[in-house]
């Protein structure tokens, strides 16, 4: 048994694939494939532990600046992951979602992503969100543009813009803000990930490289999280769960068995 409470929403910056491969004298793509196995373990573990939302930083907006060869490898890995894992997503009742500037994806990967999202839309045990072609600053800019268009059209007054209205324009609008953000490989920065949503998120950094991340590492992060006091600016003690400006109600789910793994896409930034 691990300490409670279990975070409702966990976000992970999956860092260290390149260093993992380099340390073994392997090409970078080998690190990405090993990172996919870590995603498999992590999704399965989150299902077992009762996490309701898991957001993985799979491909950042800045990753488009990498070599065409590496970008091609990552897009190919994404396509393989989506098609290979659909039976497991069905078995575990995991709904797949994606955030980011998805129109920038190659047509084949975008079509496959849309297909798997549609086929898992009714599942409610856990939501797996892949942040692909995603950047926190870019997301905020896009949200500002949408609000500006409404102001320009006369359907919104500037003084009506508040945290709630702004949050509704973000890619993450359907889900609660992350309770816990885990970063692997020892780096201590957000790397343009969920900048608005992480205002009161608990941060946990582990030196473990992402391909080596295990259920034990996840449990250690959750145990550390459970010991903290979340005051959200308040002064009283105790573990204080205060809803954010945008806190949608999550659907209920059955306690199903998690009996197999689900591979995913893990990259470094």
Commentary on this structure:
This protein is α/β, with parallel strands linked by helices. The protein has a domain at 9-136 and 178-226: Undecaprenyl pyrophosphate synthetase (3-Layer(aba) Sandwich). The chain is built from 7 helices and 6 strands. It has helices at 17-23, 28-49, 68-92, 107-119, 136-153, 163-168, 215-226, and strands spanning 9-13, 53-60, 94-99, 126-134, 180-183, 202-205. The protein has a 6-stranded parallel beta sheet with strand order 3-4-2-1-5-6, sandwiched between helices. α3 runs parallel beside α4 (107-119). The protein starts with 8 loop residues before the first strand and ends in a 43-residue tail after the last helix. Mean pLDDT is 87; it is low at 241-269.
List keywords for this structure.
single chain; 269 residues; alpha/beta; Undecaprenyl pyrophosphate synthetase; 7 helices; 13% strand; globular; disordered C terminus
Q: What would the principal axes of the Cα set say about the shape?
A: globular
Q: Whole-number average pLDDT?
A: 87
* CATH structural architecture of the domain at 9-136 and 178-226: 3-Layer(aba) Sandwich
User: Which ranges are low-confidence, i.e. pLDDT below 50, for 5 or more consecutive residues?
Assistant: 241-269
User: Count of DSSP helices?
Assistant: 7
As a percent range, the share of strand residues is 5-15%
SSE sequence, one letter per element = EHHEHEHEHHEEH
* The CATH H-level homologous superfamily of the domain at 9-136 and 178-226: Decaprenyl diphosphate synthase-like
Roughly how many Å is the radius of gyration?
18 Å
- Under CATH, the topology of the domain at 9-136 and 178-226 can be stated as Undecaprenyl pyrophosphate synthetase
What is the makeup of the main sheet?
A: 6 strands, parallel
What structural class do helix, strand and pairing data support? alpha/beta
Would you report the number of β strands? 6
In the CATH scheme, the class of the domain at 9-136 and 178-226 would be: Alpha Beta
Distance between the termini: 33 Å
Instruction: State the share of residues found in helices, binned by percent.
Output: 25-40%
Main β-sheet, spatial strand arrangement: 3-4-2-1-5-6
